[in-house]
Hints:
Elements: E1 4-7, E2 10-16, E3 30-34, H1 40-65, H2 78-81, H3 85-109, H4 116-151, E4 159-161, E5 172-174, H5 182-193, H6 197-212, H7 224-232, H8 239-258, H9 288-294, H10 305-317, H11 321-325, E6 332-338, E7 344-352, E8 368-371, H12 374-379, H13 381-386, H14 408-421, H15 432-444, H16 449-456, H17 474-482
Antiparallel strand pairs: 1-2, 2-3, 4-5, 6-7, 7-8
Amino acid sequence: MEHLTRRDARYYYRRRVPTALVDVLGGKTEITRALGTSDPAEARLRARKVDVEVDEMFALARRSLSQPQPATQPTINAPATRPSAEDEEYFRQRDEYEEQQHIATRELLHEQEASWLEIEARQARQERRLERRQEFLNDTMTKILSRVIGAAPARFPQATPLNDSPVVAGYARTATAPGKTLVDALATWQRRRNPTLASVNMMERVIELARRSGMPLSLTAITKQHVTTFLDSLNEHSRSTQRSYLSLLKALFSACVSDDLLASNPATAVKLDATKQRSVKARVPFSVDDLNAILPTLRKNDVKPSRYWLPLVSIFTGMRMMEIGQLRANDIKTEHYTDATGKRHSVEVIYATDEGDEQALKSQSSKRRIPVHPELVTLGFVEYARSLSNDARLFPELKMNKLGRITAQYSHAFSKHLRNVCKITDPRKTFHSFRHGFKNALREGGVVEDVSDALTGHSTGSVARSYGDDYWPLRPLAEAIERVRYHGLQLPN
């Protein structure tokens, strides 16, 4: 691919700055960006994203050149034609930042025998250093752009910052520029819908994928065929993900129609093709051999209890990572049911709920109760929960990030641990594979699908599911949990 180079087994994006734009861009003759990967396929994908960003930057610079320069301002170009010491420092720091990214990533990925704790600690230190350097780069580039734009109003149209998106950060748009783009569409949608930060990030992801599929940047050039091609490019994603992405794209264009940026919505008539299925499953369950590679690496006396309990709880309940990470001590309760012979039983139950502070669920059907598997009781999970105060979080070391995700850092650390320590490298196998394995265990145990769905929080869409109590009857759930077996599984001592 053009603009893609390789150095020391790592890929970089390099693109020459057009001669006419060198002065406008502070004397920089080449755009260089570390792509942070040694995988050629991933490098091509990341390079396409950078291409979009650079195209936007060049377009802004060309628009500035198209404006006539007044004869009364002979020194107007001075800030742009001579790189200042501040400019030079920016580019020096940026190059150093990219090189540190490269070195840090290489060290982490090639650490074969590092423990989970070492990986996580090193990652946290490196991220703090890179964040501080990135803040400097962002501040400096803002000053450069502000100085150039502020000094040359006749050459630069009045610009306003759009948002902190990684796709459009550092660039500006003009209200009077001919031809609106997807960048304008994103800003319009944000202004009209006032979405959450998580929704904005998701929309940016959709726009990025749409551009990769060949969708034009110009809004008026986008047709129904472009939307269809985008949908076809999502073949490896689940049907629900495809549906969500299409809905977001429709909402984006709908906001543009409402704001007169588009005459009609090119995505309105596009629908999912029911005959098309994914050629490869996005996620697969762990095999018993995989589980036996993971479990010996868990330590019950770990300073972070989440590293021990989250995998075990997911294996025997099928709960999602976030659902487990946000649990509180009072979400584990003792309840009773009567079996078919009239005998009364007590069972420990985990409640997946969104009723507490910092608790959320994927959907309404995710609100449920799951009996604690006997193996979890034996391992001491209930005892651990009882040792905490009533409303204490089970895993207080997990901190919510800016998107409201309480297990974001854990997810990243677990992925590193899985690949580097457990040596499970199949990209289809992630923490979510525990949930897939639990679903398989229910099927092998002969558990009927509606009870299985009640345990895992899946919705069938059946109207009948809305009748009855808020929670599924306890007896069939408890009897189903008893049927979950992983033959050959070696549990921690």
